[in-house]
Amino acid sequence: MKRNLLILLALLVIPAGAFAASAPASFSAARSLLAASSSPGNSYVAGVSVVLTAPVANDFSAIGGSIVVAAPVKVDELLLAGSISSRARVGGDVRVAGGSITIEEPVAGDLVAFGLSVQDSGRVGGSVLIAAANATLTGGAAGPVTIYGNTVLLAGDFANNVDIIASGRITLAASTTIRGMLSYEAPEMATIPASATVIGGITYTNAAYLPDVGTSRVLSLVSIGFFLLVRILGALLLAGLLAGLFPKLAEDVVERAHEERLGSILLTMLLGFAILVATPILLLLLLLTFVGIGLALLLLVAYALLVLLALLYAGILLGGVLVRRYMKRETIVWHDGVLGMLALSLIAFVPFIGFFIILLFSLFSAGTLLQLFFHFAFPHEAQTPEML
User: Fold this and answer.
1) 200: which DSSP letter?
2) How far apart are CA 67 and CA 102, in angstroms?
3) Across residues 282-308, what is the average pLDDT?
4) What is the mean pLDDT of residues 323-335?
5) Cβ neighbours of residue 137 under 8 Å, at least 6 residues apart?
6) 182 burial via Cβ count (<10 Å: 0-12, 13-18, 19+)
7) What backbone phi and psi angles, to 5 degrees, belong to 43?
8) Maximum Cα–Cα distance for the chain, whole Å?
């Protein structure tokens, strides 16, 4: 079982299009994205809301908040989102990670799914690896099945072995057929109706999942690593979206860092430092008065937004500086923001120095954004606000 787990994890890490035939690929990024035209090659999309309604001739890869795949994918499917719904047949492997995952149609290859809730009602032609709090597999599978979860429900025809490790209840639906062996670890025995058939026999291991000190440390490290991974991926996505949706603003921020003298750069950092330090003090003073509570809440929202934008545009700034320095390109595109935020995330792992570098970039981007927003809101008579 451990060998199957390692193989399937390796399949999840390998890019979806690594083995696909050479063909023109399409790239799309938007807040709300409707992919309604067929793609002759691989298709890569990113957005808050992604809906696929046209067939994809090769691989389909998407990242976003909500993803709905309503058209067939000929080869592999790689999806990362909070909510995922795959409603069409997939001719290859499916690799998904998210909060709520629903797969309704057959999958010709392997299925690898990580999420809070995973529901698969389509038959899987290959192996299955699921890790979820609530896992439901009702379409059966041709290959071996490995499930890690809390509650697990199985139904359908399984042609190979089924291995389950659960911290809660395991249930087999009526008329379920497992032609291999059923091996499971759980606090209590699985619910197996008389109409269910397990040809290869059943192996049950009673397990009470109360981790010892060593296991608790490992789980803590895994949780911290997962949190850092999610945070970095979120920052990359947001930086790419901001750089792609507002390229003029990103170019203005990079331009000020590129053209201003050292004294002007230091003054801009000082402005950002003053705002970031003075605003919390002002909020505390406003909270002392009944009338100022409403204004304090508005300022708190604006302050939180400024801090977030300062961190994101710090990555965009670094990416723009790298592009101008080594690629000799003046314009800023979405992947420059992703590159800069990735570099900034790696710098953050350097003790002390990394924090200092991020602070400097964030202070400069905060000061620059304040100046740009001020000129945008109060333009001179001879100027027109073109920041966006």
Assistant:
1) T
2) 11
3) 81
4) 81
5) 120, 128, 130, 145, 147, 152, 153, 154, 155, 156
6) buried
7) -125, 125
8) 84
Once rounded to an integer, what is the mean pLDDT over residues 277-304? 81
Nearby residues of 317 by Cβ (< 8 Å), 6 or more positions away: 253, 254, 257, 340, 361, 364, 365
Helix, strand or coil, per DSSP, at residue 318: helix
Looking at the DSSP bridge assignments, the partners of residue 141 are 124, 158
Q: Which amino acid appears at position 383 of this protein?
A: Q
How many other C-beta atoms can be found within 10 angstroms of the C-beta atom of residue 380? 7
Cα(358)–Cα(367) distance, integer angstroms = 14
Q: How many other CB atoms sit within 10 Å of the CB of residue 283? A: 16
- Predicted pLDDT at 8: 41
According to DSSP H, which parts of the chain are helical? 2-13, 213-245, 247-259, 262-287, 292-322, 334-347, 353-377
- Residue 3 is predicted with a pLDDT of 47
334-347 helix and 213-245 helix, angle to the nearest 10 degrees: 150
Alpha carbon distances (Å) from 285 to 62, 278, 292, 297, 305: 46, 11, 8, 12, 20
- Contact predicate 344/362, CB 8 Å: no
pLDDT for 23 equals 61
Report how far Cα 254 is from the mean position of its chain's Cα atoms: 27
Backbone angles phi, psi at 151, to 5 degrees: -105, 135
Per-residue DSSP letters for 28-86?
Answer: EE-SEEEE-S-BSS-EEEEEEEEEE-S-BSS-EEEEEEEEEE-S-BSS-EEEEEEEEEE
Coil, strand, or helix at residue 184?
strand
| Tens digits of residue pLDDT in 193-212 | 999 999 999 999 987 655 56
